[in-house]
Amino acid sequence: MADHRDTGLTLDPKFDDNGLLTAVCTDRASGEVLMVAHMDAEAFAATVATGEAHFWSRSRKALWKKGESSGNVLRVHDIRIDCDQDAVWLICEPAGPACHTGRRSCFYRRVDGDRLVPAT
Amino acid sequence: MADHRDTGLTLDPKFDDNGLLTAVCTDRASGEVLMVAHMDAEAFAATVATGEAHFWSRSRKALWKKGESSGNVLRVHDIRIDCDQDAVWLICEPAGPACHTGRRSCFYRRVDGDRLVPAT
Known about the structure:
The structure is a homodimer of 120-residue chains. Chain A is mainly beta.
């Protein structure tokens, strides 16, 4: 089964004990990592079907279309899946800031030893 | 606490119920996502201290220095942390293939509807 998942061309996502995949979203233009979120089977299917990123909100325990309230949708240009099919990489065209803080990316701080500094 | 984590410059990683952060590794040169793995507090500290990527192996239940057997270490150029501090982005200089299959990246397949195709 591991070999099948690793080497084959059969889509067989390996959801974790909570029924989730890890989803990494990058900006198609800049390559920057915009955000990391999670997808259940429904969110994954909705993303594939619509071409817009859907996740599972672990805090709200509900399907979450990114940008459903803000308008900052992530248009998905390409979906890649990793060797053991428990993580997906979404190559996106963002309609606006991906982060709830209003920043383009959620990764706006750099780890510098035991503290954080703004990423430039 | 959420605001503190989101807006401050205090490093305060939010480990999940299993004591893990999500770690996304990209290639500094190409921007490609190489792999997604997990870090416990020890792996995170070892990565910060040594500048080489360490993870928690969920299958082996042990600290795992990437490349410890293969030599394909990931030299970490930059560590970013996301708004809620439960995910890190490692900008890496890979010494060799990141994937156990020998491929440069674990994300060598593209989702095309209900099947996979080789990513080119």
